[in-house]
Amino acid sequence: MSMHHRKLGKFGAAVGLIVAGAIALAGCSSGGSTGGVTTVTVMYQANEFTPDMVKAFEKDNPDIKINLIEPDDARLNAMVTAGDPPDLVRSGPSANLFARGLALPLDDYIAKSTVIKEADLVAANDAWKWDGTTRGKGKRYGLLKDWSPDVSFWQNTQILKDAGIEPFSTTEPTTWDQLLTVAKQLKAAGVENAVGLEWQWGLGGLLGAMVNQGGETLYNKDLTEINLENPVAYRSLQWLADYASSGAGVTSENPLADGWDLPSFQTGKMALSLDGYWLGGNLAGDDAASVRDHVQLIPAPTWEVGGKRYNPVVGGIGGYIPVGSKHPDQAWRVMEYFFGGAPAEERSKSGWGLPALQSLWGNLPTALPFQASAVDTVNSELKYIAIGEDSPYLTGTVLTDALNSEIIALSKGQISVEDAAKKIQDQVNVVLKETKDQLG
């Protein structure tokens, strides 16, 4: 799993595809059919959909040739605008994507498939469902490649013990307030980076989780407005500001040179990292040899002891077939292979994300103690998994940018939490209204 893999889908606002203007790029054509061979253009990262996978697929499917191109929003927009989109696109599930009618429903394909069956899809795949108003219900417009309960932390028990702190339970959640207390204690004990939230990837998903855990929702009923003027939202924003002001973790004003938590965590310079199950594949490697005997995955924190447990799928990346694909049937065969065939089986053995198919869960790595413990933690969290809130009218990085700016200001005592909430709310709601007006 690459840093880029995570960055596209972690805790930022859902980014919808915006087709703006009739931009045309030379060489954008998605290909066609020649001599009985159909060229299927796949926009996916080559470190995930590898050249070896392409060769293996083409060997078993001599009537299809894969044209693999790297993800590029500008190029994708241009191809869609020109009426010649790729046939398969790497993406996170987005209500905005669905509301714009840019993804082809896959229900009929799944109903006929012998590889990907509806009954075998884990519930997290419902992030790709859309009923016209709500994500998580209705027709299925894409598939997850892999996923995680994203508000789960990894802890280094040795760092905690060395600081005189009892490690957190792997079965019962700690509270957010206790986590912050421990972060401050670790900072005082000289830990270089006590707790990482992957702040640089955006706080939207994390804020949404906190608000839901407190019994509120991030948006109003029809998802046309964000609502942060309530005690739970205030508490969540204040927690993030207190985290920032403590100096115990990474923020936009205290960034990591590497751009993410893994290098610090796997070399013993970070005690806790909010990275879900994802880091497991990395922690099995030689670079983490010095810490792997001391790392554990722990449940998502709650606001109170015995409080509401909620651990959303925020960053599950997958793929969809665009409306307008010239070769949707052939693209589906590529999807079957990548999301349900040999590549999916190999991914399930790696620990770099949880399988999207229930039938592959028996492949999850458990040979190392931390791997077995992580699988146990995930299984204990499954009943609290949810599809994170997502408005079809949220585009770009407006929520991420507003949160970052106002939380930093709050952490410096420049504004009150009420003012911070109002400013964030006003900035986001302007965009929500504009997008709703555009969509009609």
UniProtKB/TrEMBL annotation:
Question: Pfam families per the record?
Answer: SBP_bac_1 (PF01547)
The name this protein carries in UniProt is Sugar ABC transporter substrate-binding protein
| Annotated source species | Microbacterium panaciterrae
Q: What start and end residues bound the annotated signal peptide? A: 1-26
Keyword Signal (UniProt): yes
Q: Which UniProt keywords apply?
A: Signal
Gene3D superfamilies in the cross-refs: Periplasmic binding protein-like II
Top-level taxon: Bacteria
Which InterPro entries is this protein grouped with? Answer: Bact_solute-bd_prot1, SBP
Q: Tell me the PROSITE patterns matching this sequence.
A: PROKAR_LIPOPROTEIN
